[in-house]
């Protein structure tokens, strides 16, 4: 699919994000760790890519017509991307989201003009799960499509033909490993497939948060979740269509506490304000880098995804009271701020 936008078209701002060497993680891993700055997309997250490709794919198939409606169930970032793309192309947006996601995401969606429907968080098997609610709404709404990001493989195509190609060119073909967490599975599968087409020896690793089932699936062949995580937008309990055939070579499980260590270090040491999913991804990239170094590879190059901006989590991840309520460590500057009040 050709999604190249003409110069000056706002949709051309999606993708071609910078790749930055992360000094602290590189030092910790003993090799170069690179972060793909997906917060530089117009909607400030990696999900802008999937939003654009899913909408363009629906147009090409004739399912989405002028003045139509895009309906989706999402933890927030995909909805934000869809709302921006839909605005640019003249479509209406309806987003169904669990009501335990950050206030910033909800406020952003409303500010972008999306109709926001909040539902209680529940298991996928429950008919009231946000994905099922959004699908039914699309079926009942004239002129609407359901984006269906979890099983819509236009999602992973965005990364096969976009993100993976960018990483290959930005590293001049010298990339030894890639890792990230899975939400829909589109990013890890798509980047993995795209990079493997270039060099089958590139190691693709899943970085899974606690509470997700994919670590055990790829390690032991069983979908089994253990523990829990407060990270938004990552963690999966089933094999989505996007994950089918994903070339996963190895897997890591990262706790929220370890992810928060890197959220703090990247902010304090490198000036990057990121969400917890990015911290978990970076921790996984360090593990992958150490693994490659231990095998005798000379300064392996490992890349990961910096998923979104930390400004989207000011009421949660960067809020001392919220962190305490979740039993998580509080950043020291937040503790000082509380004490000064």
Task: Fill in the keyword field for this structure.
single chain; 341 residues; alpha/beta; Rossmann fold; six-stranded mixed sheet; four-stranded parallel sheet; 10 strands; globular; TrpB-like_PALP_sf; transferase activity, transferring alkyl or aryl (other than methyl) groups; transit peptide; transferase; Cysteine synthase
Describe the secondary-structure layout:
Layout: E1 19-21, H1 23-29, E2 32-37, H2 47-60, E3 69-73, H3 77-89, E4 92-98, H4 103-111, E5 115-119, H5 130-140, E6 144-146, H6 154-170, E7 177-180, H7 186-198, E8 203-209, H8 214-220, E9 250-254, H9 256-270, H10 276-294, E10 301-306, H11 320-325, H12 332-340
Tell me about this structure.
This protein is α/β, with parallel strands linked by helices and 341 residues long. It folds into 2 domains: 10-41 and 163-326, Rossmann fold (3-Layer(aba) Sandwich), CATH 3.40.50; 46-146, Rossmann fold, CATH 3.40.50. 41% of the residues lie in helices and 15% in strands. It is built from 12 helices and 10 strands. The chain has helices spanning 23-29, 47-60, 77-89, 103-111, 130-140, 154-170, 186-198, 214-220, 256-270, 276-294, 320-325, 332-340; strands spanning 19-21, 32-37, 69-73, 92-98, 115-119, 144-146, 177-180, 203-209, 250-254, 301-306. The strands form 2 sheets. Strands 1-2-10-7-8-9 form a 6-stranded mixed β-sheet, sandwiched between helices. α4 links the parallel β4 and β5 (115-119). α6 (154-170) packs across α7 (186-198). The longest helix is centred in the last third of the chain and has 19 residues, at 276-294. The termini are far apart. 51% of the residues are buried.
